[in-house]
Amino acid sequence: xxxxxxxxxxxxxxxxxxxxxxxxxxxxxxxxxxxxxxxxxxxxxxxxxxxxxxxxxxxxxxxxxxxxxxxxxxxxxxxxxxxxxxxxxxxxxxxxxxxxxxxxxxxxxxxxxxxxxxxxxxxxxxxxxxxxxxxxxxxxxxxxxxxxxxxxxxxxxxxxxxxxxxxxxxxxxxxxxxxxxxxxxxxxxxxxxxxxxxxxxxxxxxxxxxxxxxxxxxxxxxxxxxxxxxxxxxxxxxxxxxxxxxxxxxxxxxxxxxxxxxxxxxxxxxxxxxxxxxxxxxxxxxxxxxxxxxxxxxxxxxxxxxxxxxxxxxxxxxxxxxxxxxxxxxxxxxxxxxxxxxxxxxxxxxxxxxxxxxxxxxxxxxxxxxxxxxxxx
Length: 377
Description:
The protein folds into 2 domains: 2-295, Spore Coat Polysaccharide Biosynthesis Protein SpsA, Chain A; 298-376, no CATH class. It is built from 12 helices and 18 strands. The chain has helices at residues 42-52, 69-76, 81-84, 98-111, 129-144, 192-201, 215-225, 227-234, 259-265, 271-274, 297-304, 361-370; strands at residues 2-8, 54-65, 87-92, 117-121, 125-127, 148-153, 164-170, 180-187, 204-213, 244-247, 250-253, 282-286, 290-292, 311-314, 320-323, 327-330, 335-340, 349-354. A 5-stranded mixed β-barrel has the order 6-9-7-8-12. Strands 15-17-18 form a 3-stranded mixed sheet, with helices on one face. Strands 5-13 form a two-stranded antiparallel ribbon. Strand 1, helix 1 and strand 2 (54-65) form a beta-alpha-beta unit. It is globular, with a radius of gyration of 21 Å. The model has no long low-confidence stretch (mean pLDDT 93).
């Protein structure tokens, strides 16, 4: 189906701060019994999706920050020996958003001779796996015909925190079960009224952030739409065999000559802004799977259900606690309480937010940044 699956495992997931932070970002948090009754981290579930849609000799390319490679490798080590041998971990010298990460993976695949690719997120919940695999087969077919393919999710509400895809005419004449449409436009997080209009029109879908393509096609799109992103990476030669270290059967690209310079030169921009929104030949496969971004504490607390935290209550109800030290609640209700004591070496921090208001965490994170306390994040 796919020769390469790329898992973008960067980012700090500050919407779930302080549980998610630069030391232990969202993709490495527990995902509960999230997919087909299976538990694990968001990242381990992304690995499962990748292997479900790979060809027998396909590879999983993981792009993650240098400080997160060790954690990613620990999770990958739980796989059997055959699957570990199909994984390549590439440490990012610095965080530059998703377009440079995609460019890095694209050039690596192009230099090492592989075919069609699937770009995956590492911090979403997708189920069932069988439906995702079926949609991925359709995406692979369209990618082979020269499309950039995105998965569009039917919106269940007028959500202002997601991007949207405007669907055009149905793409017909192919023996593929999922419905597919020409993607007319990408719209970033709209205001409330606009989101309502999008949903009521029936033409707009949530952007899942996952894309399928052939490397040759996407390379040309990068050159046309985002030359400042791709040109530093095109200067890279194929990595030398000596640049890899092998740990527990996993290949880690510790030294790729010129990679740091490429990241330093590339602008920080998302793949959607840099390429997808400007691509003139984009197909949207209507997702048959359910998709959860889990972008705030209201959603995450429902997903987890419980955390095993040591909690004592008096006159309190309907509260969710995620803490690594004991917590007592008295006379309160409908709260999300998150406590990190600093045991892992991070600064201690506490979040208390009323249920239904967890989108405000984004504003708190910005306030922390303005105060110059980025070590808390």
